[in-house]
Design goal:
single chain, 3-stranded mixed sheet, 23 helices, 2% strand, two-stranded antiparallel sheet, globular, 591 residues, mainly alpha, 63% helix
């Protein structure tokens, strides 16, 4: 694998929008730190509207600057997790972040003591118009806001939180090394996080099987450390939820995003009702692959030959632009802007963060990290992350800083809409039966991965947190047993499992952002509906672009309704599964 210095500059993101260099980072961070003490003069005086406004404006001013320098440090570390300078920059950042949090912790507490009537009046006050949602959240949070001393204590302890995720990242991305694996001809291949995806899509079944066994088996070798690390993360979630008087960690997470437990549970219910659909997909693949029995390591196996191709990064960008053209010329131009202004860090390098993400902060364009390998999956991943970036860009452009930062619950809609549009574009231009099957397979694999698999993950982390909340002991053995049980149910008895798959849960980084993964499922369900509406025309793109431009100006359930998606209704789920069934039937007709 190439080192960072061996990657061409045009394929690296441009971080100068955040900070010109490391020296400027330290200078600006120091300046932010020097101003934090100003908040002491506001403490105890926020009942005065003039002082309140001045305090909130100062907090926003410093937060904007701090977010820019913090993003720079975070992204520098993502480039090379083993780089000493970047690690030290982030350590310094954590101290300043903690100090910032400590010195401003009184603000929400003091405002929460206002009578509800006063808070509602502030919501209506034109001077505070950009803070309307803030005061709304204060009213919501009243029952979960602690005393000034308690909030200060939690703020000071916050720098100790999140260490489990850091442990995981460092261990998996830097320290963990994998054994070489053999293909059907006995040839040895290097295995790492980046090329595992390539191997699991190989036509060589031996290579697929050995890559799964080696990858999951390696996590199994360290399962006691990984389980202890994750269990500590679960404990932290549950304890903090209890401290803030939430009934559970799930309730706390969902409350913070203004979503509902009903949606979470409705998702699980509807997926379980449609479990046979996912298993029908496996049966189609088994027939195409001419296997006596489908195995878990055949998940990503190509079902047709001579269709898959390699794409350059430039070809991928052009393809995405064509696919999203239904959203209008301005949206397409934003894709060009992302490429030309180097929002995107394209290729894998040694010690770079694995996977992909889009990130952004007010005052700068978004950025995208990918590990582009040129296969179709890489193209879809790029489209996915650019969906996030367009959402961020449009929200930042159309919202004030107070309401630009949308929650994850709606974030996964924009990314998946891009993927659905790309898929539809490719399928519409498919000229042969092989090509159509290829894209049906891709769509259903996405449904399997983003709806079925993420819902399985959601059940797993719900189980882990509920066990701790019931005061039942958690262990590596229990977590592995539960994961195997869920795997068996979701795949069905006709799919051959590997013993090593019980360790797969330890490989999922999103478990360190608890109750995150279910949003991939709800996101795709909404995306299927939105993409179909966009392709039908009738000016629906205006509704969708309004949704993308709305930030967090409303609660997420209401925001989705702008784009005609209501996740409180079973009908929304049923419509998505009907589309999936249609794809299964169309594929079956071609066999």
């Amino acid at each position: 694998m190439k080192t960072r210095s061996e990657i061409e500059e045009r394929y690296k993101w441009d971080l100068t929008k955040f900070c010109a260099n490391d020296n400027e980072y330290y200078e600006r961070l120091k300046k932010v730190e020097s101003q934090i003490g100003v908040f002491k003069k506001y403490e105890g005086k926020l009942s005065d509207e003039k002082i309140l406004f001045e305090c909130l404006e100062k907090e926003i001013e410093l937060l904007k600057e701090f977010s820019l320098v913090a993003m720079y440090a975070h992204l520098r570390l993502c480039e090379d997790n083993a780089d000493r300078t970047s690690n030290e920059m982030n350590e310094k950042l954590s101290f300043v972040s903690s100090k910032f949090s400590n010195e401003t912790s009184f603000i929400d507490v003091e405002i929460s003591k206002f009578e509800t009537g006063k808070l509602k009046a502030l919501q209506e006050n034109k001077k505070f118009k950009n803070y309307s949602r803030f005061f709304e959240s204060i009213i919501r949070d009243k029952q979960h806001t602690l005393s000034k001393a308690e909030e200060l204590l939690l703020s000071r302890l916050s720098q100790c939180f999140g260490g489990d995720s850091d442990n995981y990242d460092k261990f998996v991305d830097v320290d963990m090394k994998f054994d070489n694996i053999l293909d059907e001809n006995g040839k040895s291949h290097e295995l790492n996080q980046a090329n595992f995806q390539e191997y699991r899509e190989s036509k060589d079944r031996t290579l697929r099987k050995n890559s799964y066994k080696a990858m999951m088996g390696k996590f199994g070798e360290y399962i006691n450390f990984l389980a202890t690390n994750y269990i500590n993360n679960v404990k932290e979630d549950c304890v903090l939820a209890k401290v803030r008087k939430h009934k559970s960690a799930l309730a706390a997470s969902i409350f913070n995003e203004e979503a509902t437990e009903e949606v979470y549970n409705l998702l699980i219910k509807k997926v379980r009702e449609n479990i046979a659909l996912g298993q029908d997909y496996f049966e189609l693949k088994r027939k195409m692959l001419k296997l006596d029995r489908f195995a878990v390591y055949d998940n990503f196996a190509p079902v047709v030959n001579g269709v898959s191709k390699k794409y350059t990064y430039e070809e991928a960008i052009d393809l995405i632009k064509e696919a999203v053209s239904v959203l209008g010329e301005d949206y397409v131009k934003l894709i060009d802007k992302a490429k030309d202004e180097r929002w995107i860090d394209v290729y894998p390098n040694k010690n770079k963060d694995s996977g992909a993400f889009s990130s952004g902060t007010y005052g700068a364009t978004p950025v995208v990290l990918t590990n582009f390998t040129g296969n179709l999956e890489s193209v879809f991943t790029l489209a996915h992350e650019l969906g996030h970036s367009m959402h961020t860009y449009l929200s930042n452009k159309n919202q004030p800083i107070q309401t630009c930062d949308y929650v994850i619950f709606v974030a996964e809609v924009a990314s998946n809409v891009n993927e659905m549009l790309l898929l539809s574009y490719l399928l519409e231009r498919a000229k042969t039966k092989k090509e159509k099957i290829y894209y049906y397979d891709h769509f259903l694999n996405q449904v399997k991965s983003s709806i079925y698999r993420q819902t399985m993950f959601a059940e797993f982390e719900q189980f882990a947190h509920e066990e701790f909340e019931k005061e039942n002991p958690l262990s590596a053995e229990l977590l592995c047993e539960k994961y195997k049980e869920l795997n068996d149910f979701y795949f069905g008895e006709k799919v051959e499992q590997l013993d090593e798959m019980k360790y797969e849960w330890a490989r999922i980084p999103h478990f360190y952002s608890s109750f995150y993964v279910y949003k991939y499922a709800t996101g795709l369900i909404c995306a299927i509906k939105i993409a179909n509406s966009l392709l039908d025309g009738n000016g629906f793109e205006k509704k969708y672009l309004k949704f993308l431009s709305s930030g967090c100006s409303k609660d997420p359930i209401s925001l989705l309704k702008i784009a005609d998606c209501d996740l409180t209704k079973e009908k929304t789920f049923d419509e998505a599964f009907d589309v999936c069934k249609d794809y299964v039937n169309k594929w079956a007709e071609l066999i």
